[in-house]
Amino acid sequence: MPLNEREESVLTGIQEWENKLLNYEPNDLEMVYDKSLERSFSLLPEEVQQQFFSAMDSWLFHLHALIQGSQLQMDAKERILTAGRVFHSDIETIEDLKQLTIDQLQYIAQQQIARHRLYSFAQGGIAGSGSSLMLGTDIPAMAVINLRAVQLIAMTYGFEVNTPFEMMSSLKVFHAATLPPRMQGSAWEELKNELKNQEEFYFYEGKEELTDITWVEQPMKQLFKAMAIYFFRRKSVQGIPFISMAIGAGTNYQLTRKVTDFAHKYYQMRYLHRKNNQQ
After folding, report:
1. End-to-end Cα separation, the chain, in angstroms
2. DSSP secondary-structure letter at 94?
3. Secondary structure of the chain: what % helix, strand, coil (to 5)?
4. How many CA atoms does the CB half-sphere of 51 hold within 13 Å?
5. Can you tell me whether residue 242 is helix, strand or coil?
6. CA atoms within 13 A on the CB side of 157
7. Would you list the domain boundaries of the chain?
8. Sequence-ordered list of residues with C-beta below 8 angstroms from that of 249, at least 6 positions apart, any chain
9. pLDDT tens figures, 150-178
10. Are 130 and 119 in contact (CB under 8 A)?
């Protein structure tokens, strides 16, 4: 089924965004930081590195399953279906959402995106308030918020995340979205190549490892943020640590903005390609 004018416009926008990713030129500081981080991590024995990344992968898999099966996510799924019925009354399943137009789906997706960016902003502000408990739970909380956002964007465009392929796709989208900009282009190409090489979209046939040394930079950024919050939390105005709260809120918001932008482009691309390939 050929794409209409509006869908062609959205696809062109995705291609322009993709070109920016692929043509991103890292500056000297990024290159030095990347090499120093890789050199530092390589000092660890290879077995320790493998155990670390294996543990990270296992944690992400279990967290994904926990979020997917939670009542909170079931309620969010029902809200997406209810929003879809406003435009098309006979929608019963996530798969039925593909009947909607790209503008209708974008409207529903933007609601999810705005909500989760707000959650991240609030979480960052709470983490920056000076409480050691809140600061300690910041990384798991941010993982939950961003993984949940990716799952809901996928469902909005008609992709259930309870099959092996869609589960791995959503995890790889989350992983790619949290990479440094200089590495996102190759991750995007890998995601596209997996779609081309996949014969059927139930079982997953690609590489199942997620994290590696290229992903370490994001957890390091979170640690640097925690150190900045810890340093500034005693600098308060009338008992409120505005600086540390601003650091936490701003950093978390920017991370979720990056993740949701990447995920939105990916699932828009999937929706448009699927529609274009329908006979």
Report:
1. 6
2. G
3. 75, 0, 20
4. 5
5. helix
6. 25
7. 50-278
8. 121, 122, 124, 125, 128
9. 999 999 999 988 888 889 899 999 999 99
10. no
